[in-house]
Amino acid sequence: MTVVVQRPTDHPYPSLVDRLETALEDRTERELTVSLEFVDGATSATEDPQPSSQEGAIAESARGLGALSIP
User: Fold this and answer.
1) Which region ranges are annotated with the description Disordered (predicted)?
2) How many domains does the structure of the chain reveal?
């Protein structure tokens, strides 16, 4: 499975791939290999550009979409 994440340039997410893999395996009850691809991007000034935790913000977005829950 490949996941594409837009992020600010040079902002690392060292544990995101493991968190995604665990959440997806729990959800699908299957063993998966997750490949994480980062796409550098920017956010408009109308949105909060500095969430307290970038990984937490991605996880929260996924929960908001009902896609999956990432601890």
Assistant:
1) 41-71
2) 1
